[in-house]
């Protein structure tokens, strides 16, 4: 059966709006590159286009017990329609939302697309949100339906359900709900299969490309999260632009192994990039970061692998632990192989196409086996997104022939704006601007640094009910002001050097961007998990550091036990310890103090002024995390929270 609906635009006068019922002018230029002038398409049309072209290609794959199951794109569309019909039957109104609270899964994808097909709005909620934060999201998006993953997430909604006047139904997609008035996923499928197609067809005919179909909530490191409205064109265009940048051929085998992400913007990129390419998405299970990830990779053997930095950090830590157990001969061979392989990739970055026999030998004999053990023997593209990946981690993976590319974006720009690829990559930039999009530096200083600004069809419509805040970030010419300090070099590489709002202004009036200094400290001291610069309104800079530790497998809370790699480092320094408590008992060992000070000294050597040199530091008793409040959902540090929590330690550094 073929489904047809008009690809319409509703009347609009402005490029921005704060009304979920509103529509906007699209930023399609009259002339320009082919990618810039692509015809606009709705999300249902976007999905239909891929189904028509590749009906029997695998779309989604997931594991039930020991067996993999999958949907073809034809089955995927049928299931989306079933869910959409169920949502309409349950009371989803046009321009009202379906809130989704869970990790990456088939049901997350179907809920997202089902809401949009039904003329509603898909709104993801961070899995780390408190009940109060969930209520804020549901209220801002006028949620008629909330879809939760399991009992743990359901408890949050149960606490606030009576406070949500628009709410019509709650659905739990994993396991059978034990609470009354909560539907299971099977209930949804049954309701949808029994429902008529007529109401869905009417909703599809009412959809306009230039209206809101998705809401993404900002991470809320300062104040309440803002509700970012994204149109159909924002999402479908950005996915197409990213696919062009990656030079993906539609319909080819792109087995992309996705992780159990709770980062909402990343989940959205998953959906539309995979659909655009006609690719298959394989879902890792919830325990991926607790040890099952490699099992999934070995079974799937992906050709494209996308993950958040923590994924690559976990692989790095595991491999460091394994390497530490090797004997002298194996260590010597590994060091030789990594040295030549790292140099080979650094040469490529610098435009030197060397044909080193040592690299060819290492790649064939050593690193092919490592990739096979990781399930990455077919992988041709590795990407890290959602937060910066430390330079030393990137260097390590280069040394074992796994070049990891960075992707940078914002919730306000549909998820992707710059992307590194092997032919255009270096260790410190966030890649180049994706073709069809534009980047500029606003009010640059003599050194070229200024505020990073973005322009393109991927820039959001506006914040729900906050037109003034929308106008603060989107200027009259349509440029999105990111709040990031950055620069663009002569080759077109984009760099982030700090945050405007995070600038520390010392007592002497000097502006100090903390982020690049913190990143440099972590590069100099690999056993440091978080480095936090202090100095606003103070006469000099100080530093708080946390050591890398194990985390609780259930909720990610940092534990007292040091990572094995951290223990090995401390042992090599001559101050062995197994826990942070041991490190801090009776004061840190002078040898550890000296090692940290050496890293600070190297960082200070690169300071652009005396005001940017760190004078004192302290080791904190516990690492930062989302559950303990120091990090937001996108892993950004909540500076005010850290300063309040450790105010006594900070005060001692200045007394």
Automatic annotation (TrEMBL):
Pfam families listed in its UniProt record: AMP-binding, AMP-binding_C_3
Biological source species: Hypothenemus hampei
Documented EC number(s): 6.2.1.3
GO MF entries: long-chain fatty acid-CoA ligase activity
Domain AMP-dependent synthetase/ligase, first and last residues per copy: 48-463
Alphabetical UniProt keywords: Fatty acid metabolism, Ligase, Lipid metabolism
Gene3D superfamilies given in the database record: N-terminal domain of ligase-like
SUPFAM superfamilies in alphabetical order: Acetyl-CoA synthetase-like
Protein name: long-chain-fatty-acid--CoA ligase
């Amino acid at each position: 059966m073929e489904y047809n609906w008009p690809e319409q635009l509703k009347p609009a006068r402005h490029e921005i709006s704060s009304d979920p019922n509103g529509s906007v002018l699209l930023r399609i230029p009259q002339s320009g590159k082919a990618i810039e002038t692509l015809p606009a398409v709705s999300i249902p049309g976007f999905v239909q286009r891929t189904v028509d072209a590749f009906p029997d290609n695998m779309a989604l794959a997931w594991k039930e017990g020991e067996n993999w199951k999958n949907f073809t794109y034809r089955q995927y569309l049928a299931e989306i329609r079933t869910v959409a019909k169920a949502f309409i039957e349950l009371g989803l109104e046009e321009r009202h939302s379906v809130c989704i609270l869970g990790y990456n899964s088939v049901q997350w994808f179907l809920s997202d697309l089902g809401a949009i097909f039904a003329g509603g709005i898909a709104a993801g909620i961070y899995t780390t949100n408190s009940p109060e934060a969930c209520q804020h999201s549901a209220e801002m998006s006028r949620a008629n339906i909330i879809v939760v993953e399991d009992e743990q997430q359901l408890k949050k909604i149960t606490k606030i359900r009576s406070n949500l006047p628009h709410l019509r139904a709650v659905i739990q997609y994993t396991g059978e709900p034990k609470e009354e008035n909560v539907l299971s996923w099977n209930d949804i499928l049954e309701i949808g299969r029994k429902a008529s197609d007529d109401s869905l067809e009417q909703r599809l005919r009412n959809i306009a490309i230039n209206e809101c179909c998705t809401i993404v909530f900002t991470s809320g490191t300062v104040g309440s999260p803002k509700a970012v409205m994204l149109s159909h064109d924002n999402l479908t265009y950005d996915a197409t632009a990213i696919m062009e940048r990656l030079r993906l051929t539609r319909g080819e085998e792109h087995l992309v192994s996705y992780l159990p992400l709770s980062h909402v913007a990343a989940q959205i990129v998953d959906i539309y990039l995979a659909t655009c390419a006609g690719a298959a998405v394989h879902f890792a299970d919830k325990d991926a970061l607790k040890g099952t990830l490699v099992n999934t990779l070995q079974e799937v053997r992906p050709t494209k692998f996308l993950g958040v930095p923590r994924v690559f950090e976990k692989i790095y830590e595991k491999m460091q632990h394994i390497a530490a157990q090797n004997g002298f001969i194996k260590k010597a061979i590994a060091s030789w192989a990594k040295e030549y392989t790292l140099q080979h990739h650094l040469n490529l970055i610098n435009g030197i196409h060397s044909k080193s026999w040592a690299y060819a030998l290492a790649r064939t004999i050593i690193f092919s086996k490592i990739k096979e053990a990781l399930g990455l023997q077919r992988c041709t593209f590795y990407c890290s997104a959602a937060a910066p990946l430390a330079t030393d981690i990137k260097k390590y993976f280069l040394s074992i022939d796994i070049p990891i590319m960075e992707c940078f974006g914002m919730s306000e720009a549909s998820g992707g704006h710059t992307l590194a690829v092997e032919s255009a990559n270096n260790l410190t930039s966030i890649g180049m601007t994706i073709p069809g999009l534009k980047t500029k530096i606003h009010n640059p200083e003599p050194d070229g640094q200024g505020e990073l600004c973005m322009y393109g069809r991927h820039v959001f419509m506006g914040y729900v009910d906050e037109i003034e805040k929308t106008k603060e970030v989107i200027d009259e010419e349509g440029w999105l002001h990111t709040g990031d300090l950055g620069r663009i070099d002569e080759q077109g590489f984009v760099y982030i050097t700090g945050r405007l709002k995070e600038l520390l202004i010392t007592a002497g009036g000097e502006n100090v961007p903390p982020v690049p200094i913190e990143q440099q400290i972590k590069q100099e001291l690999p056993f440091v998990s978080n480095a936090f610069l202090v100095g606003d309104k103070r006469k000099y800079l100080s530093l708080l550091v946390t050591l890398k530790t194990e985390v609780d497998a259930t909720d990610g809370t940092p534990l007292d036990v040091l990572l094995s790699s951290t223990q090995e480092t401390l042992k090599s320094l001559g101050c062995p310890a197994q826990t942070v408590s041991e490190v801090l008992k009776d004061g840190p060992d002078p040898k550890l103090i000296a090692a940290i000070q050496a890293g600070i000294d190297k960082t200070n050597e690169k300071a652009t002024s005396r005001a940017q040199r760190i004078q004192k530091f302290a080791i904190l008793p516990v690492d930062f995390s989302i559950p303990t409040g120091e990090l937001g959902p996108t892993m950004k540090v909540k500076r005010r929270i850290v300063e309040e929590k450790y105010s006594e330690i900070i005060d001692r550094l200045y007394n």
